[in-house]
Write a structure and sequence with these properties.
Chain A is an alpha+beta fold. Chain A is about 35% helix and about 25% strand. In chain A, helix 1 packs across helix 2 and helix 3 crosses helix 4. The chains are: A alpha+beta, B alpha/beta.
């Protein structure tokens, strides 16, 4: 558990989090592994977990009928994957596909959600950090949409 | 004609012959040229450009993408996007091409000695930066860490794939590539080039950053580098405008108070940043 606490504390997402809150987070954490090619989560299934990637790469994929899945972004070492656990209806909206062998810390979103409901200070801290991730992803998606390498005519 | 004579006759193209043509991507080619009169090619600084005459078609400003240590040839990587570029990349070995230059102020490879180099390239923007990489790798002990962050539209649009793999194996060198749109066989990053900054081993206080790619990309990267602690004087960008005379006579490439051909194409972000936010420029 001590090791898990150290890893979580060193993750940028949890950096500077009050020690008491960190203990609550560690209580919801466990080590997991995913083989390359396997799915970390699938669209439409309950989003009760989110992941801190320690090693490897997870692709966020959109399923598209009659065509190959579309990879919209990837997340790697030190990054958090998943915020659907925090917002109703708590269902994954995309596939999370391990494109490389992945070692991660799974954080029980349901457990953490309950702790956030009990302790709104913790809830606000977590929410601020999740919003920062959402903001970064939104910026990246907007930039991606510009299609900067396309030929300008 | 020797280099002194060429310096006196900057408007006079020297005939070169195409020695080799390499297809890099479906629309991008690398051509190696050699002087036809048998004289050694003129030396160039990484980041400088030439004006290339495709006889009967027109003239193109193209950055030199070859190894500055190999002075007997000039290498250019060109994306075929119009009549003149298409004519240039369609040249066969043995064909004649006119070359003026090299022109402009290149990357600050001398001023960067002893420091880490953070190179951020997008698409064809890797071509003007490749001479810097060659230079650093052949003078490895004179520089600190080399970090190359490279973004392209898709895996098939990545330039110099074999070299990227070979550079990644060099000591104290980090090479990260990403694509905006990845296929299922792509096992690397997917996302815009700025997303690579979080994986980069950066030491901003002792670094010089060199950026080349679409202007909008450089603006985003420069902004994020500032967020990581880089000062505007530590960030260099290569600008592209409609160069015609290449020596500051005609004014076609004027950008605010600068002529891109003569005062650049490489500028510090401190010099050029304020103008990048202006719509009318």
């Amino acid at each position: 558990m001590e090791n898990l606490e150290r890893i979580i504390a060193e993750c940028p997402f949890f950096a500077g989090l009050d020690h008491a809150y960190l203990n609550l987070v560690v209580g919801c954490a466990s080590n997991v592994r995913f083989e390359a090619g396997s799915y970390v989560f699938k669209e439409g299934t309950p989003a009760d977990t989110f992941y801190l990637i320690r090693e490897g790469k997870v692709a966020i994929e959109i399923f598209a009928p009659h065509r190959k899945p579309i990879i919209v972004s990837t997340a790697g070492e030190g990054e958090i994957v998943g915020w659907s656990w925090l917002l109703p209806p708590y269902v994954w909206k995309f596939h999370g596909h391990a494109v490389q062998s992945v070692r991660a810390i799974a954080l029980d979103g349901k457990c953490l959600r309950a702790k956030c409901e009990e302790n709104h200070d913790l809830g606000y801290e977590i929410l601020k950090r999740v919003v920062q991730i959402v903001e970064h992803r939104l910026d990246e998606a907007r930039f991606q949409q510009v299609d900067v390498y396309a030929v300008q005519r | 004609m020797n280099s002194a004579a060429i310096a006196l006759e900057p408007m006079m193209p020297q005939t070169h012959s195409v020695r080799e043509v390499i297809k890099e991507t479906p629309d991008t080619f690398t051509l190696t040229l050699q002087p036809e009169d048998g004289a050694g090619a003129i030396g160039f600084q990484p980041g400088q450009f030439s004006m290339l005459w495709v006889f009967g078609v027109g003239e193109l400003p193209i950055s030199i993408s070859g190894d500055p240590g190999k002075q007997d040839r000039l290498v250019y990587t060109v994306r075929s996007v119009g009549k003149a570029t298409n004519a240039f990349v369609s040249q066969k070995p043995g064909a004649g091409v006119g070359v003026r230059g090299p022109f402009g102020i290149g990357w600050p490879v001398d001023a960067a000695r002893g420091r880490d180099l953070v190179i951020v390239a997008g698409g064809i923007g890797l071509a003007p930066l490749r001479p810097v990489i060659y230079h650093v790798l052949s003078h490895r002990t004179e520089y600190g860490r080399l970090v190359l962050l490279y973004g392209a539209r898709s895996p098939r649009d990545l330039l110099y794939r074999k070299e990227l793999a070979s550079w990644a194996r060099q000591r104290d060198t980090q090479v990260l590539t990403t694509v905006d749109y990845g296929g299922l066989s792509w096992r690397n990053h997917v996302g815009v080039v700025t997303t690579l900054l979080k994986y980069a081993r950066l030491r901003p206080a002792q670094s010089v950053a060199m950026l080349c790619g679409p202007e909008i990309m450089m603006r985003f990267v420069a902004r994020d580098l500032e967020g990581h602690g880089f000062g505007r004087r530590q960030i260099y960008l290569s600008m592209e405008r409609n160069m015609k005379c290449a020596v500051g006579f005609c004014g076609h490439c004027q950008y605010g108070p600068h002529f891109i051909c003569k005062d650049g194409p490489v500028f510090t972000y401190e010099q050029i940043g304020p103008m990048m936010d202006k719509y009318e420029l």
